[in-house]
Write a structure and sequence with these properties.
2 copies of one chain form a homodimer.
Chain A lengths: L8 H9 L4 H9 L5 H7 L5 H13 L3 E6 L5 E6 L1 H4 L2 H14 L11 H9 L12 E8 L4 E7 L4 E4 L9 E6 H8 L5 H6 L3 E4 L2 H6 L10 H19 L16
Parallel strand pairs in A: 3-6
Antiparallel strand pairs in A: 1-2, 3-4, 4-5, 6-7
Helix pairs in contact in A: 6-11
Chain A binds a DNA duplex through helix 4.
Chain lengths: ~250, ~250
DNA sequence: CGGTATCCCCCGCGATACTG
DNA sequence: CAGTATCGCGGGGGATACCG
């Protein structure tokens, strides 16, 4: 951990949060991730050693509390302290800025289908699911052999890298980049359907209900707002050819 | 520059801002620093190479604009773009959090007297200065031979590491840590005077006016608010022994 | 002043093996 | 599963010299 040697609150905060991965760890803790391996799954590329280092540092500075439940199994929980919870404002400011100024098309190396499904798993409207178990198969184009499954019940949601064995109820075939953009609010689900970037094969009732099972990304609203914001500024600057301008549609960008 | 490989606005923002020094560079640009060497002076410990690297990166991502005025001298200005200016929210969130949770007594290695004077230089109420040039000598205790000067005119303010030659109008003798705490709003100037942590030797009129020449740290208000905030929570938790509690005074902490 | 080019060292980090 | 201990490397970054 580097020390800037400046007696300044911004420098102190940057010392604590500036280490690689630390802000993403906080982001995930803020959205309810509590276990070591869950954090690790949400941060592909981090090594176990490094995650442990970062978590220890966060404990030392009073942002994270480690709680070991000795009762049932060796479940160790990482929870944000009060100080950690108040980082919500920092992460939110980063989110708003990132959505407006650091965002655009996904880079190829950002198209990790497993991470996407992992994120989706944590944003299921459990109470909107059908009563019976549902297995959804995702067939992502643009990545070789990217076929994974989501097993949805009202008790539990799991990402399967192997066929779960049960019958598949819904088959989603999608362009991975487009599905990511839908996830993040840059593209509307309906538009993606219409442009054949997403295809849902299931009994009509299920296919129609499918998009409602997901809350989509927590960042989607900010991303949409940022797009409108920037479009607004661009239009304002360019002078605008039409006085009554059409509501900006999310057009497929093929 | 590290890439997290996550299509997420927070990760994208962290990629751009997470490099060492970058947030402090933005902090200084936000407060009006515009020249390479001025940035360097405000960031003791950064190498010229690294500062140049960081500034180039910030240009590449559209946060900073480099403007070379070819007219007069070879003055090169670094200015925040619109995107850069909107980082104000991020830095502000860090400031608020840092003031509340990452702050406390200064660490010994943070007691750089030159940096303090450099900061003071940029927060002078130029219009409150006397009409004639004023030379203030600072005699910081706790550091060997830490004697420096501030030369104040309504045209220009400069930090002198050598005696500027002119007569000294005000001699400030102070404990460096305490003066830093006054600078940052953790200690009131008057209390520090009373506790002999700061001593001002000058003609009465000048001595009395001296503290009003400075705007003190831009972070001071946040720091004060954070102290009250935390005290409030502490009192609320401890139950409070007195029903009418005295307004929390900033007592000298000797 | 306002940087770039070069060299070289150190430590942040990944990989691996091991433990409760 | 939830980590710790150890080793080895690569590149981030400091020091220095140089240029416009």
């Amino acid at each position: 951990m580097y020390q800037y040697g400046q007696y300044c609150p911004v420098a102190r905060a940057a010392e604590i949060l500036g280490d690689r991965w630390t802000l993403l760890i906080v982001r995930d803790l803020l959205t309810g991730t509590r276990y070591f391996n869950a954090l690790k799954r949400g941060l592909p590329g981090i090594s176990g050693t490094l995650l442990a280092d970062r978590l220890r540092r966060l404990q030392d500075v009073g942002v994270v509390e480690k709680r070991s439940e000795l009762k049932g199994r060796s479940t160790t929980e990482y929870l944000l302290t009060t100080a950690g919870s108040e980082l919500r404002d920092v992460v939110h400011a980063l989110l708003m800025w990132g959505a407006k100024w650091g965002f655009g098309e996904p880079r190829p190396e950002e198209l990790d289908p497993i991470l996407l499904l992992w994120w989706m798993r944590s944003r299921i409207h459990i109470d909107r699911l059908p009563a019976e178990r549902i297995v959804v198969e995702f067939d992502f184009r643009g990545v070789e052999n990217a076929v994974y499954w989501l097993m949805l019940t009202r008790k539990d949601v799991s990402v399967c890298l192997q066929h779960p064995g049960h019958d598949v109820d819904v088959v989603v075939t999608a362009d991975l980049a487009s599905f990511y953009e839908v996830w993040l609010g840059r593209l509307s689900y309906d538009d993606a359907l219409r442009a054949n970037q997403i295809n849902v094969d299931a009994l009509p009732a299920l296919a129609c209900d499918f998009p409602n099972w997901f809350a989509w990304s927590a960042a989607a609203e900010a991303v949409r707002a940022a797009m409108l914001d920037r479009d607004g500024e661009r239009l304002a600057v360019s002078g605008g050819g039409t006085e009554t301008c059409e509501p900006p549609l999310h057009l497929p960008n093929d």
